[in-house]
Amino acid sequence: MYNKISQLRPFRLDTVAAIIGLLLALTLLPLRLVASQIYLNTVPFVLGTACALYLLALYQRDTTTALPRLPRPVAMTLPSVVLAGLGALVVLTVLQGARTPVFFAVASVLATLVVAQILFTSEEEFNRRLLLLQIVLFALVFRFTALYATPGYIGIDVWTHMEFVEAIYAEESLSAISHDKHYASPFYHLLVVASSLLLDVPLRLGLYLSVGVLMPLSVLLVYATTNLLISERWAVLATALFALASHVSMWGLHLIPTSLGLVFFLAILYALIRVMRIEYTMRDFSLLILLSVAVILTHQVSTFITLVLLLAAFVAQVVFVVGPFGLTRLDTSVFRAKKPVNLIGLVVFNFGLTIFVWSLTPYREQSFLATVLSFFTQTLEESAGFLNIASGSTGDEAAEAGAGAAPTLLEQAVPYIDALGFLFLLGATFAGCLYVVHRRRAEQSVFTLLLAAAIMLVFVLVLPMFGIRNFIPTRWFAFLYAPMAILGAIGLRTLVRGLSPRVVVSVLLLFALIYPGAMLFAVESNAENPVFSDQHEQLAYNEAELAAVSSIGDLTGGPDGQDIRPDQQLHTDHPYQTVISRTGAYPSTTTATVPDDGVADHEYVVYRAEQSTDATYFNDENGEGRIEQVSQDRLCQPHHATVYTNGEVTMCTPSPAT
User: Fold this and answer.
1) Which parts of the chain are coiled coil (predicted)?
2) Phi and psi dihedrals of 642, rounded to 5?
């Protein structure tokens, strides 16, 4: 068997990598028995499948490449169907007052139709401009329907950032936030204020018309980047894969500095790949420097992720100058041959400016740099360890929520539904990585994507398994999806060219039918009104809940945190406690402790109807957070007096009689 395979295809780097990937997948399988974690259960299967399909594509004897294409009338009709469907989504949201499961079902069908057009339209009917228009319009409609239907804001951190924006707007000076770490990275806040002033609109609308509009438009940067590497069809596919990604949609709904940081990251990725693919000038490098400064002045986590990208590009440069690829000339039919670009100056500039700015950034009575290093050192000393899996991922939260009771089939399935789109894209990315490590195809630009994706996967998947979450891995996924979408498109193109038509059609149909819906039904895409509302908390509030926040602030006088005694701390569910504290209505607000089958023992509590019907978080008697549905009498006790109620939200305090 060995001799037969070696005669068909002499062993080379991509072949060896695929075989090693198969062996690694088999090695990782037993970890499922050691720890219960969704990625431990699924990634080995994804890796093994991707490697097996790639090897099959290498050794497939059937060289037929003809694929079924959509009939011409169907291909010409589908764009109109998609555009009409997008209009129906708007009408549906207006009529129902929210994005409901019906909305997401219709949106999934429309997204599948877009992907099907990309994959199965003939060359004569393929129109990249029309497809890109559909992708951008879909992204706009999908995000802005949520923003339109939601009173207030979607998410948690946005309330704090908009408080900063309002302070800057009122004082007309950055000194209004001089106490906070964002004083050194204020670009997001200044952009929102400037948009509000220039467009003469309220700050909330200024946010939506600036950062909110930039997010869906920024997906075009993925197209521009991918088209530097591969043909238009697959560049459009990469754009669709990225635009539909759940975490990308989330930062289009939860509009915070991370969102703007993602836009700058995509621009840096494009500029970086561009200088590696064309005869660049100083203007191109000047753009890279300008974008680097912009991301540093926007968001600290985005800055660190950008440094990872630049480090990957520098390592790729070293590999092609002194490494095993240094003497190999490229196959110009795959990627244009080009001498590796020297990036040492750009990397040093970014690291130097980042350290300088972080050293001056105030954070918890120290500099941001000192505080972050202190936290990381503490984590390594106290909680880091192999398979010391920290909570925080969707799968882990669902597991905790079901602890103490046998989980239902839905409770077991929801974490896999949330992760399904990512796993599909991960499989395509593995295939793309195997393709680009072939010596004839290896090039600095694609190796930059490969190394960046690999390093970022370590931060989001591997380090949390060792109890290290200091780098906030949930913020990385949207950034990770950019190189993954590009490599994934390359991977699917590879399988299409190597596998038999029957297998290719099966792979592409599965991808087109499952990936869009899985991404749109994932919790990150519907945080304002979760599809699985008994499994995921709602990160948005209705009019009554927001009115209660304002009334609590008026009732209590909005005291400063230091003026509130420990026994006067306000307790309610998470995430509702965050909006009460972050808006300044009652700064000393935290998550209530509600024992299993017991009642809370707090003096000041807030109950809302959401706590009895959908997923909200409370602490148990051990201080561990878990999803719990509670009735009003488990928070408000007989010795309490009701000082405020509007029918949906009730505030209870100690009765004067007691």
Assistant:
1) none
2) -85, 115
